[in-house]
């Protein structure tokens, strides 16, 4: 119990390694649940506040709009939305398996590693 709490505190210290948000811009991911299940993409934006990531082409909603005037003819527009981090998994650049992210502490930096092959995941 104690060890777990210590680890969380440690992770909170560094802004970009908040618990739950291990993905970074440029990471390749695969969607594991929902309508886009099985689709791959690249993280373009990370939203730490609500644990979501934006991946182009993933989680696109179609919205029907009514015609308002000539400038807004209406129809169906595609609206990509950020997706919950829990719905995606990282695809390791080294072994290309989907994997959870682990951490390894080097001298003065903490690096992300693939839990499957142990290779460093570039950030
Ligand atoms: Zn790997």
From TrEMBL:
GO terms for molecular function: rRNA binding; structural constituent of ribosome. It comes from the Bacteria. Residues 22-49 form the KOW domain. One of its GO terms (cellular component) is ribosome. It holds the Pfam family KOW. The keyword Ribosomal protein applies. Keywords: Ribonucleoprotein, Ribosomal protein, RNA-binding, rRNA-binding. GO terms for biological process: translation. NCBIfam families: rplX_bact. Belongs to the universal ribosomal protein uL24 family. One of the proteins that surrounds the polypeptide exit tunnel on the outside of the subunit. One of two assembly initiator proteins, it binds directly to the 5'-end of the 23S rRNA, where it nucleates assembly of the 50S subunit. Part of the 50S ribosomal subunit. This is Large ribosomal subunit protein uL24. It comes from Candidatus Gottesmanbacteria bacterium GW2011_GWA2_44_17. The lineage of its organism: Bacteria, Candidatus Gottesmaniibacteriota. The gene is rplX.
């Amino acid at each position: 119990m104690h060890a777990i709490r210590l680890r969380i505190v440690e992770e909170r210290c560094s802004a970009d390694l908040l618990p739950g948000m291990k993905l970074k811009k440029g990471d390749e991911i695969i969607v594991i649940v929902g309508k886009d299940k099985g689709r791959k993409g690249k993280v373009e934006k990370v939203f730490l506040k609500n644990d979501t990531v934006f991946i182009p082409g993933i989680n696109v909603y179609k919205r029907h709009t009514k015609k308002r005037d000539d400038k807004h003819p209406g129809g169906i527009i595609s609206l990509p939305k950020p997706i919950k981090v829990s719905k995606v998994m990282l695809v390791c650049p080294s072994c290309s398996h989907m994997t959870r992210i682990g951490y390894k502490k080097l001298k003065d930096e903490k690096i992300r590693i693939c839990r499957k092959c142990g290779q460093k995941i570039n950030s």
